[in-house]
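I am sending you the entry underneath: sequence plus fold tokens. Let me know what the token row says about the fold:
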Amino acid sequence: MEHGLGQSKQKYLYIPEPHNDFIFAVLAEELGFIGCALVILLFAIFIWRGILIAMKAPDMYGSLIAIGITSLVGIQAIINIAVVTSSIPNTGMPLPFFSYGGTALLILLCSMGILLNISRNSKKI
């Protein structure tokens, strides 16, 4: 049965913490395979670009910060998707940029600002 955006049935007491830890399951029900593949592709592109930024950073400190921010977001996304697909036990880790929570989003956006600043000051090849 197709539900569409905003019409998920899982978020009504079928899964624990649907707005936080299991947001990917709700996203999968509402957007289907194409939506899930698109979200995973966007995280993969983010990781790839973060690694490129770290490699082109002007100094070792910028490189370490860039790879740290990229690793933080990438590992958090991988763990959340693995939990939702029952590949690993539940850890309570939210999906970056999607899960509910203002403080986590604020810290992620500040981290993205730092990453963009490193990218702006990087070596041009």
